[in-house]
Write a structure and sequence with these properties.
Blueprint: E1 2-6, H1 10-21, E2 25-30, E3 49-52, H2 56-68, E4 73-75, H3 84-94, E5 97-100, H4 106-122, E6 129-136, H5 146-158, E7 164-167, E8 175-182, E9 189-195, E10 200-206, H6 211-224, E11 229-231, H7 233-237
Parallel strand pairs: 1-2, 1-3, 3-4, 4-5, 5-11, 6-8, 7-8
Antiparallel strand pairs: 6-9, 9-10
Helix pairs in contact: 1-6, 4-5
């Protein structure tokens, strides 16, 4: 499979290593700051699928350029989700393919499933208060992380006593607190804690490196190249 990388920072380079180890060819490395390559240089047009890890500021524009060429897109960029309805519309009405995940780690996506199930159980246990903590490297531009937002929204959907999340502080009992910390070169830590007067229960995921995210992104690219529409990890992992 021929893959175009959009964004060639630490994550892009790790994806390249994983993709090549699985027998894929990298035909474009689009990153004006790192490589000088752009969408019109020729290599991108030959790609079977694009993998995009950039910044919230440029992500949506990158998706539109991919759609212009009719290329399936796999993206792990967070912080742009106000444009998500437009992406879904392009998939539904114009036949585009877009695979989005706030986190491509297989372990994190298992955490998502556990989190939804635990929230359903705790919906009937009002004696437990819930909050979340996420820790990432200091270069991460958005807070809370896209993964934390996904976890929080799933708790809110399954727990009647919570109706919104708040960053670092809460004002009402109906709000879910997300603590967001930025430290060193931490790839990603997410912890959901339920606490009562008598005990504490947590579910926790800590990434050891970027390798798990990169592998998940390449697996998603393999999946997106063979499927159509708006896709996600639930589709690929068949939860």
């Amino acid at each position: 499979m021929k893959i175009a990388l959009i964004g060639y920072g630490k994550m892009g380079k790790e994806i390249e290593r994983i993709a090549q180890s699985r027998g894929h060819n990298i035909v474009a490395r689009i990153d004006p700051m790192a490589t000088g390559e752009n969408f019109d240089d020729g290599g991108f047009e030959t790609a079977d699928v694009a993998i995009e890890f950039t910044t919230p500021k440029v992500a949506y524009s990158n998706y539109q350029k991919c759609f212009k060429y009719g290329k399936p897109v796999v993206s792990g960029t967070t912080g742009w989700l106000d444009k998500l309805p437009e992406i879904k519309k392009a998939c539904e009405e114009k036949g585009q393919t877009f695979f989005y995940a706030s986190n491509f780690s297989i372990g994190v996506n298992i955490l998502f499933e556990l989190n939804r199930h635990l929230a359903k159980i705790m919906n009937n246990r009002p004696e437990y208060e819930v909050e979340m903590t996420e820790v990432h490297h200091t270069q991460k531009l958005d807070a809370p992380s896209g993964t934390a937002i996904t976890l929080a929204e799933d708790i809110i959907e399954n727990m009647e006593r919570k109706n919104e999340w708040k960053l670092n502080a809460t004002e009402k009992a109906t709000q879910l607190k997300i603590n967001a910390l930025r430290e060193g070169d931490v790839p990603g830590i997410h912890t959901i804690k339920y606490e009562s007067d008598v005990d504490e229960l947590t579910i926790h995921h800590s990434a050891k490196s970027r390798k798990g995210f990169a592998l998940g992104a390449v697996l998603a690219a393999e999946f997106a190249a063979k499927n159509k529409g708006f896709l996600g990890m639930k589709d690929m992992l068949k939860f």
